[in-house]
Design goal:
- The structure is a single chain.
- The chain has helices spanning 2-14, 17-22, 27-38, 45-51, 55-63, 70-89, 91-100, 102-118, 127-145, 147-160, 167-170, 175-183, 186-189, 199-207, 235-262, 264-267, 282-295, 323-329, 333-341, 365-372, 379-384; strands at residues 193-194, 197-198, 211-214, 217-222, 229-233, 298-305, 309-316, 345-351, 357-364, 386-389.
- The protein is an alpha+beta fold and 394 residues long.
- Strands 6-7-8-9-10 form a five-stranded mixed beta sheet. Strands 3-4-5 form a three-stranded antiparallel beta sheet.
- A hairpin with a 5-residue loop joins strand 8 and strand 9 (357-364).
- Helix 6 crosses helix 10 (147-160).
- The radius of gyration is 23 Å and the shape is globular.
Length: 394
C-alpha cells in the first residue's frame, strides 16, 4: 500500500486539478479543455469524449508538461500518423501487434512503478555519486522501460512501409539495430538520438560503465572497440540527457495510449482477457482511477483494498456544490472499484469541504458482476446501491 499512498500524495500535490477547483473551475470545464487539447490526436471523437474524464486524465496531466513544447507535440502527431499509416496498410496486423505485446506492456508498467518508488534526488550530489546514479537511471529507463515501446514502434514503422511484421522476430532484435533502422528516417532522427548519440549508445555507456570523471567533466566513451569515440559532459549536461530520455519515453507512451484509446474496439475485437499471463500491480490502474476521481472534484483521503472489501474515502473540493447530489451521482465509483479489485463489497465514503463525513455508498460484487457481464444495464447499479446518510450531516 505504500505505492498507493505515494500516488495519492502525488495526485494531490503535483496535479493542477485541485488548484483549478479551488479557483472556481468546474469539472465540465476540465473536460472541455482535455477534449480541446487532444482533439488533433484523435479521429474517434466519441472515444475522446467518453474517455476524457477517465483514462485520459492522467495523460492530460502529463501532456501539460509539454504544452509549450512545439517539438514534442509535432513528434507526437508524426508518430501517431505513422501508426495510422500502418493501420491503413494492414489494420489486422497493426492491431495484432498491440494484442501480442500486452503481456510485455504489463511487465513494463510494473517495472516503471518500481523505478518511480526507488527514485531519489540526485542533483545536489557530488559529481561522482551524481554520475553513477544518473547513469543507472539512464540504463534502467532505456533497457527496462523503452524496450516494449520500441518493439511496438519498429513494428508499426515496418508495417507502415509495407513490410511483413513477425513479433517473435522483432523481439530478437538488438536495441542498436532498432535504433539504426528508425533514425534512417529523417522524421525520427532527433527522436532517437541525443547529442548525436543513439539511445543504444547511451544505454551501452550506462550499462557497461563506460564513463569516468576527469576534473569536473564526465568522460563517456562509446562505439566499436577498434574505433572508440569520446564525449565530455558537464554535470548539468548529463542531467539534461536524462531529462531528454524521459521526454522521449513520455512521447512514446502517449503515442501508444492515444492510438489505443482511439481504436480500442477494433484492437480488442476477438481478444480473450484470460490469455493475459502477466499480473499488473495495483499502482498501474490506481493512478488512472485516482486521476479520474480528482478530475470530478474529489480529493482522495484514503484507500484500502482486500478480497473481502475495498474502501475509499473522498473529500469534496468544489465550493458551493450540491454535495449530496454529486455524491449520489458519483456512486458509480463503487462499480469502478469492483472493476479493478473484484472485492466482495465496495464502499465509498464522502466528506464535505471541512472533511466531515456525510454519505456512504456501498454495493456488492454480485450487483457489479451483472453489469460487467452485460446481463444488466448500468442503471441497475442505481437500483441496488446502498446510500447511508451519516449522522454528522445534521
Amino acid at each position: 500500500m505504500k505505492g498507493i499512498i505515494k500516488i495519492i500524495e502525488a495526485v494531490r500535490s503535483e496535479s493542477p486539478l485541485l488548484e483549478f477547483f479551488r479557483a472556481g473551475i468546474k469539472p465540465e470545464e476540465i473536460k472541455e479543455q482535455i477534449i480541446s487539447d487532444f482533439d488533433q490526436y484523435f479521429r474517434n471523437k466519441d472515444n475522446l469524449s467518453k474517455y476524457s474524464m477517465t483514462y485520459l486524465v492522467s495523460d492530460w496531466i502529463l501532456y501539460n508538461k509539454y504544452r509549450d513544447n512545439s517539438w514534442f507535440k509535432q513528434k507526437l502527431l508524426e508518430s501517431l500518423n505513422m501508426y495510422r499509416d500502418a493501420s491503413k496498410r494492414d489494420a489486422f496486423a497493426c492491431h495484432d501487434i498491440f494484442k501480442q505485446l500486452i503481456d510485455d506492456q504489463i511487465e513494463t508498467g510494473n517495472r516503471f512503478w518500481s523505478f518511480v518508488f526507488t527514485e531519489t534526488n540526485k542533483k545536489d550530489l557530488e559529481i561522482y555519486e551524481f554520475t553513477q546514479m544518473t547513469m543507472n537511471d539512464i540504463g534502467r529507463i532505456v533497457e527496462g522501460l523503452f524496450k516494449t515501446l520500441l518493439l511496438e514502434y519498429i513494428s508499426m514503422y515496418r508495417l507502415s512501409k509495407g513490410k511483413k511484421v513477425v513479433i517473435s522476430d522483432i523481439k530478437k532484435l538488438d536495441l542498436g539495430i532498432i535504433n539504426n533502422e528508425l533514425i534512417q528516417t529523417s522524421a525520427f532522427l532527433d527522436l532517437f538520438s541525443i547529442r548525436s548519440l543513439k539511445l543504444s549508445d547511451w544505454r551501452n555507456i550506462a550499462y557497461h560503465h563506460n564513463y569516468s570523471i576527469e576534473s569536473d567533466k564526465i568522460k563517456c566513451t562509446y562505439g566499436p572497440k577498434d574505433n572508440r569515440n569520446t564525449i565530455l559532459l558537464e554535470k548539468d549536461e548529463l542531467w539534461a540527457v536524462l531529462l531528454e530520455i524521459s521526454r522521449i519515453l513520455d512521447l512514446l507512451n502517449l503515442t501508444h495510449k492515444f492510438y489505443f484509446y482511439d481504436n480500442d474496439t477494433e484492437i480488442l475485437q476477438g481478444f480473450d482477457p484470460d490469455s493475459i499471463r502477466g499480473e499488473a500491480r495495483t499502482e498501474i490502474w490506481f493512478l488512472t482511477f485516482a486521476s479520474a476521481l480528482v478530475a470530478q472534484g474529489f480529493d482522495i483521503i484514503s484507500f484500502e483494498t482486500s478480497k473481502e472489501i475495498t474502501k475509499l474515502i473522498v473529500r469534496e473540493t468544489i465550493i458551493d456544490s450540491d454535495k449530496r447530489t454529486r455524491a449520489i451521482h458519483s456512486s458509480q465509483f463503487t462499480y469502478n472499484l469492483w472493476y479493478y479489485t473484484s472485492s466482495v463489497k465496495l464502499e465509498v465514503e464522502y466528506r464535505d469541504l471541512e472533511n466531515v463525513p456525510y454519505l456512504r455508498a456501498s454495493t456488492t460484487n454480485e450487483i457489479c458482476e451483472k453489469i460487467g457481464s452485460k446481463e444488466k444495464p448500468f442503471t441497475y447499479l442505481a437500483e441496488f446501491i446502498n446510500l447511508e446518510i451519516l449522522e454528522n450531516d445534521a
